[in-house]
Design brief:
30% helix; alpha/beta; two-stranded antiparallel sheet; seven-stranded mixed β-sheet; Rossmann fold
């Protein structure tokens, strides 16, 4: 499976060349009722042709978190908008559907089609509880070349629950979590990102007059952490105490929010995706 994932990644047409746009008639999502909504778009074999799909991982939550919505947090706007910008900012070949929109999918962790995903995105993972079967399938996906990015989970309780769940997938004694430092290649894959920004949701930011710490003293700054395999390849990256995906989902709703957060949010996202596709 590892070699198949590598071949699939190459087929995605990765190029570390900024400033080249692939011009499609793609729309950006810009808020409820305007574009998106509805039930999950479950992955099907026909969705995969070797191009890049934004694969969102489906899971069950056992508790709520303020500002979160479980697996579908920021869905489907973040998925769509990031895929549009990825096609514009790189030569990654993004899969399009019949309407010429990015062909983003939701995939169950036990679905064999998970192996067709170049990488997997999950949000609000501090509420996740995996079944034993999900643990086994996610472990196989990661150990055979897969890549997972989790975002938008805040504070100590969410961190502790997530580390418990990912620790069931990848044993901490074999796969310890570590801080990703500014000189790591993932920070400079395409864009030169100095640090991971702390971004609050646009609703929290508006309500608090511009605060970025959604849990106050319990989320003083963003954490960027990872898990690597025995060769040093990152398998899991975690953006904790920050909501990178909202910089994509909400880019069209506020010029001020866009100017402050979206350029670096897209830079972080593009760097992570290009790293995943080339390692």
């Amino acid at each position: 499976m590892r070699s198949a994932l590598r071949r699939s990644a190459l087929a995605a047409g990765v190029a570390v060349l900024a400033g080249v746009s692939l011009v499609f008639a793609q729309r950006l999502w810009s808020g409820p009722g305007r574009f998106g909504g509805g039930p999950p778009k479950w992955a099907a074999r026909a969705n995969f042709d070797g191009s890049f799909n934004y694969c969102r991982g489906f899971y069950s939550s056992n508790r709520p978190e303020a500002g979160g919505m479980g697996w579908w947090t920021d869905y489907p706007g973040a998925d769509n908008n990031f895929s549009v910008r990825l096609a514009e900012l790189t030569l990654v070949r993004v899969r399009l559907d019949a309407a010429r929109q990015p062909d983003n999918v939701v995939v169950r962790l036990t679905d064999p089609l998970l192996s067709r995903c170049h990488m997997l995105f999950m949000e609000d993972v501090g509420t996740a509880r995996f079944t034993d079967q999900e643990v086994e399938h996610l472990r196989a996906y990661l150990e055979k070349g897969g890549f997972l990015w989790v975002d938008d989970f805040w504070g100590t309780p969410a961190w502790e629950q997530w580390t418990q769940e990912i620790g069931r997938v990848l044993r901490p004694s074999e796969y310890p979590i570590f801080d990703i430092l500014p000189d790591h290649p993932i920070m400079h894959t395409l864009y030169d990102v100095k640090e991971i920004p702390q971004v609050s949701s646009i609703n929290f930011w508006r309500r608090t007059g511009g605060s970025t710490s959604e849990r106050g003293y319990d989320s003083p700054y963003a954490n960027f952490r990872g898990i690597a395999d025995e060769h040093g390849r990152l398998m899991v990256v975690m953006t904790h105490n920050t909501d990178i995906a909202d910089t994509w989902e909400r880019e069209a709703e506020s010029p001020e929010y866009f100017d402050r957060f979206s350029p670096v949010g897209y830079a972080v996202g593009v760097n992570i995706v290009v790293y995943a596709l080339t390692h």
